[in-house]
Amino acid sequence: MGLTQDAPAAPARTSAFPEAAPAFVAHDRVAPDLTRPDVSVCIVNWNCVDLLRKCLASIYARSQGVSFETIVVDNGSSDGAADMVANEFAHVTLIRNRANLGFSAGNNQAASVADGRYLFFLNNDTELPGGTLKEFVTFADRNPGVGMVGPKLRGADGNLQISYRTKPTLAAMLHRVSLLRWTGLFRRAYYRYRRDTFEPEGTRSVEVLMGAAVFLPRSVFEQSGKWDERYRFGGEDLDLSTQVGRRHEVVYFSNIEILHYGRVSSRANVGFSAPNVAIGYVHYFRKAGVGPAALFVYKLLVTVDTPLQIAAKVTQATQRLVRGKTYKAKKSWLAARGLWHFMNRELIRFWRA
């Protein structure tokens, strides 16, 4: 296939994901239909009008080198985002939802009307350099056995962001429970998941790509079951990477670099994002084969721990404010708000997940 796998394949386990194919086998795809665009760029938006405007402007500011279309699904924004797209980017296909259907459902809506032979799912808080789509298409055409490709992500501060990870384990998530963190029992598992495995340079097979920007053939997307709509926000990139990875390589390609503001939209809508991330992990673990007893213990620990984390974040915010660290204090308050919303409005859904 022309690619070297730098990491061993993950061991098989009982799960709800489809069974793996015998091997990663390169195959010839059908010759491209020149009457259709090469790429369909699919963007889901909710209440991020300014970020979305920058994203769309970057796509069209410079030549992308291939034919493409852009589809925006607006999930019932109240900040005028849908009208902005209609007025300023009339060539973009716009789908208006009356309510927030979630990230996965919105992406599936976009894919359902897309005409491109490749689908590029892109966050609204990103910006593309010129020629980005051509680089993706060239790489994918040369490596037909690859199922999904993700780029290098760089923040607005100039720092590289973690652009791929290993699959999370229940042990890794238990380290986030403050009742257990002090013991250090799960520190190694957590840091392996979050940081230790990321190497920014090179091309390699990986387990999980960050959902900010993923590029894949339409046929692979459909064969893999599309985005699982039980994930409203958070965990869906774990799920899609796992499903695609059962039959195809999931590849990180550092030659392509994209600007990703990162967590700007999730922090702006923390009451929605924080609870759904917690629920998304439960969906993922259940689908990956974690037993009901282990999930019960995990849910119980998270439930008991949440009030403690709220108190800790409020205290931290107050201390930072007193010390004049306004920006960091704001981040602590946002974290406390997200936890409060989770505890008061979404705890039942968390337990039902």
Question: How would you portray this structure in words?
Answer:
With 353 residues, the chain is of the alpha/beta class. It has 2 domains: 39-163 and 198-266, Spore Coat Polysaccharide Biosynthesis Protein SpsA, Chain A (Alpha-Beta Complex), CATH 3.90.550.10; 291-352. The chain has 13 helices and 12 strands. It has a 5-stranded mixed β-sheet with strand order 3-2-1-4-11, sandwiched between helices. Strands 5, 6, 7, 9 and 12 form a 5-stranded mixed β-sheet that branches. The protein has a two-stranded antiparallel sheet with strand order 8-10. α2 (81-88) links the parallel β2 (68-75) and β3 (93-97). It is globular and about 60 Å long. 41% of the residues are buried.
Main sheet, how many strands, which sense, barrel?
Answer: 5 strands, mixed
* Structure summary, number of beta strands: 12
Structural category is alpha/beta
Q: Kindly state the mean pLDDT as a whole number? A: 88
Run of helices and strands:
EHEHEHEEHEEEHHHEEEHHEHHHH
What is the CA-atom radius of gyration, in angstroms? 20 Å
Helix content: 40-55%
- Strand order, biggest sheet? 3-2-1-4-11
Looking at the overall shape, the CATH architecture of the largest domain is Alpha-Beta Complex
Unreliable residue runs: 1-15, 17-30
So what's the overall shape?
Answer: globular
Fourth-level CATH superfamily of the largest domain? Spore Coat Polysaccharide Biosynthesis Protein SpsA, Chain A
Strand content: 15-25%
CATH topology of the largest domain: Spore Coat Polysaccharide Biosynthesis Protein SpsA, Chain A
Q: Whole-Å distance between the termini?
A: 39 Å
Class of the largest domain in CATH? Alpha Beta
Instruction: Count up the domains.
Output: 2
Counted by DSSP, the helix tally is: 13
